[in-house]
Design goal:
Length: 387
């Protein structure tokens, strides 16, 4: 999947993102309060609505009353999805049906196109699929979630399943598994198969790579050592607790050995910068082509010593992944070419996103430092928030 265009209007105060164009690599820059984080969160929320995933129900509830339009391509085809969502209301009535009495309607209207062909045209009164009426379905979920096994909408569900944001936040201190490491070996024929399974927790994914594809795990170790040269070893340790269940259970965790320290350092005791970069490496090194990666405040928890390695790593994955990042840090902005900069500005509740390369002052070839200096002195940047 690759997101091509995105626009959004929230409920309540009417926060509005005007139509923006997205490229393969996007660095959202702008003054604090311009709307960078809200853009990333809005994309996350739309992905959650598409999948109807209970694990991210907080994202779905936060988006109630909003409307959005998103254009994207997947497997060589172009799609456009536009929807308006019901605002927060009571829990529904018996007249709505048994399911809606438990879960209130989410979808007000919804239209999905593949190129010029209409796949879905949905209102409270009707539901057209491929131009033909079908029984009205659960309005607590998007058509993409409800009809995820239909041949017309199955590719869309697969596309939105390739968005990564949850796994890069709230990092778990360890993993928990039953049985041996080989009980799922037949499901993964390559490191790419492991990278494509977004349901695998951080430590479990790392253990699978270590045990079955040591060269891939060694590449992660090498990249990690580039950022943290004092690290001598990286290993996933498993601690067995056979008495907990009949099958036996294990806690597994990423660990490191650092020069001058005899004991292994478990993930929970690592610096937050080490934890975050390890998460990037494990989840993104072998993520499949077409994965959409959303990272807000890339520099968060990362010290200046590891920013160069993190930036180089993400740029190296740019040909295969679509990255949508935000940052305030001068080093990150300086090292990423201006062709990837998206300048976020806000006037009142309306947000616009401008391509830096379309601004004449940014068009000339300059040094990294000069380009950053020009950026922060642009009127579009300096006056990025206006009442």
């Amino acid at each position: 999947m690759r997101i091509l265009t995105f626009e959004f209007q929230s409920a309540g105060r009417g926060w509005t993102l005007e139509p923006m164009v997205l490229d393969a690599f996007n660095l959202l820059v702008g003054v604090s309060g311009a709307g960078k984080t809200r853009i990333v969160r809005a994309i996350e929320q739309v992905c959650a609505v598409a999948l109807g995933n209970k694990e991210v129900s907080e994202h779905i509830e936060a988006i109630r009353g909003a409307s959005f339009a998103i254009g994207f391509e997947h497997d060589g085809l172009t799609y456009h999805w536009k929807a308006a969502l019901e605002p927060r209301v009571g829990r529904g009535s018996e007249d709505d049906g048994a399911l809606q009495a438990v879960e209130p309607p989410l979808i007000q209207t919804e239209r999905i196109y593949q190129g010029e062909r209409s796949l879905v045209d949905r209102t409270p009164e009707r539901f057209l699929l491929n131009g033909h009426p079908i029984p009205k379905l659960d309005r607590a979920k998007s058509a993409i979630a409800v009809l995820k096994e239909d041949p017309a909408l199955e590719p869309l569900y697969a596309a939105f399943s390739r968005c990564i944001f949850r796994s890069l936040e709230g990092l778990p201190p360890h993993g928990f598994r039953f049985g041996s490491v080989d009980d799922q070996r037949q499901n993964y024929q390559s490191a790419a198969d492991i990278g494509a399974d977004f349901s695998l927790p951080l430590h479990v994914k790392a253990e699978f790579l270590q045990e079955w594809f040591p060269e891939a795990f060694a590449a992660i170790k090498e990249a990690f050592q580039e950022a943290f040269p004092t690290i001598e070893k990286l290993k996933v340790h498993r601690r067995h607790y056979p008495k907990l269940t009949e099958e036996g259970a294990s806690f597994i965790t990423l660990t490191v050995r650092e020069s001058g320290i005899n004991e292994w350092i478990v993930f929970a005791d690592m610096s937050s910068g080490m934890q975050r970069y390890l998460s990037f490496l494990v989840h993104l090194s072998f993520a499949p082509r077409g994965t959409v990666v959303l990272i807000d405040e890339l520099e968060s928890s990362l010290g200046v010593n590891c920013l160069p390695a993190v930036t180089r790593f993400l740029l190296s994955r740019a040909p295969d992944l679509q990255l949508i990042l935000t940052s305030h840090h001068p080093y990150i902005i300086e090292q990423i070419p201006p062709s990837h900069w998206k300048i976020v500005t806000r006037k009142g509740s309306r947000v616009r996103v401008l391509d830096a390369e379309n601004i004449p002052a940014m068009a000339e070839e300059r040094s990294h430092l000069d380009r950053f200096t020009r950026l922060i002195n642009l009127p579009e940047y300096e006056h990025g928030v206006q009442g």
